[in-house]
């Protein structure tokens, strides 16, 4: 089970949070050299840390490099710390 501070404030389901990050798809594809776009970074900031952590600790997704996805807050200059991944 995930700590409350990780997911407790996310008001979205896993899949609705994932849909919110569709603009980031190219930036998190395996081996992608493409940086996150402005619309991707806007989605990251809007979604917020609790929902990003929900995604980070969710099931593996085909076509998504989890380590690249975990770097989105830093790459987008979002003002929150990275998520802790619970294995």
From TrEMBL:
User: What are the Bifunctional inhibitor/plant lipid transfer protein/seed storage helical domain coordinates in residue numbering?
Assistant: 19-83
The record's InterPro entries line, in alphabetical order, gives:
Bifun_inhib/LTP/seed_sf, Bifunc_inhib/LTP/seed_store, DIR1-like
This chain belongs to the protein called: Bifunctional inhibitor/plant lipid transfer protein/seed storage helical domain-containing protein
Native organism: Brassica cretica
